[in-house]
Amino acid sequence: MSGDIVQVSLGNRTIGIVGLKKVMEELAKTAPGKTDAQCREILYQGIANQNYIPPKMAEEYKDALLRAFKAFTGEAAEATPAGGVRIQVLGPGCHNCDRMEQDVREVLAELKIPGDLSHVTDPAEIEKFGVTGVPALVLNGRIVCVGTVPDRKRIRQWLIDLLASGECKAGV
């Protein structure tokens, strides 16, 4: 079952959606000729029975599902709503991985940078990054460390460098 959970970005968090992979595979066969609005509805209806979706957030979920589908099919998709940094901690959930995740969370808060922080524990998903060791840290799609837990000073510097490059913006 865990192999059929797909992570989607929803606002400033990542949500695991059960059954999305199967729905995306089926839709990919019939998607040519369908509008984005039609695809959003098909994706939403396909996962709604297996996942709790707060009624007030249905439109946000539909947008996130469409972005995930476009990424799945290799189409260009609009980026996740902007502002912060997308951070992924790669690792099985060991003490070191959890420590890195907590350190990143604390540095984000200190710097007041909005971020989408997720912890990727699925070995198949980790393998897609091509890393040879864990824990690993990925900032905005770029692998910045592998096989070690960086100290908070180093994490802070990476995030400050992202701010300076304009890849993310500090919060208010």
What do these coordinates show?
It is a single chain. With 172 residues, this protein is an alpha+beta fold. It has 2 domains: 2-73, no CATH class; 85-165, Glutaredoxin, CATH 3.40.30. Helices cover 44% and strands 19% of the residues. The protein is built from 6 helices and 6 strands; from the N terminus they run E-E-H-H-H-E-H-E-H-E-E-H. Strands 4-3-5-6 form a 4-stranded mixed beta sheet. The chain has a two-stranded antiparallel ribbon with strand order 1-2. The protein starts with a strand and ends in a 7-residue tail after the last helix.
List unreliable stretches of 5+ residues.
none
Secondary structure: helix percent = 40-55%
Strand-and-helix sequence, N→C?
EEHHHEHEHEEH
Largest sheet: 4 strands, mixed
The CATH architecture of the largest domain is 3-Layer(aba) Sandwich
Q: How much of the residues is beta strand, in percent? A: 15-25%
Report the mean per-residue pLDDT as an integer: 84
The total strand number stands at 6
The helix/strand class is alpha+beta
Distance between the termini: 40 Å
> What is the gyration radius calculated from CA atoms?
17 Å
Query: What would CATH call the homologous superfamily of the largest domain?
Result: Glutaredoxin
Numbering strands along the chain, what is their spatial order in the largest sheet? 4-3-5-6
> Total helix count?
6
Q: How many domains in all?
A: 2
Shape: elongated
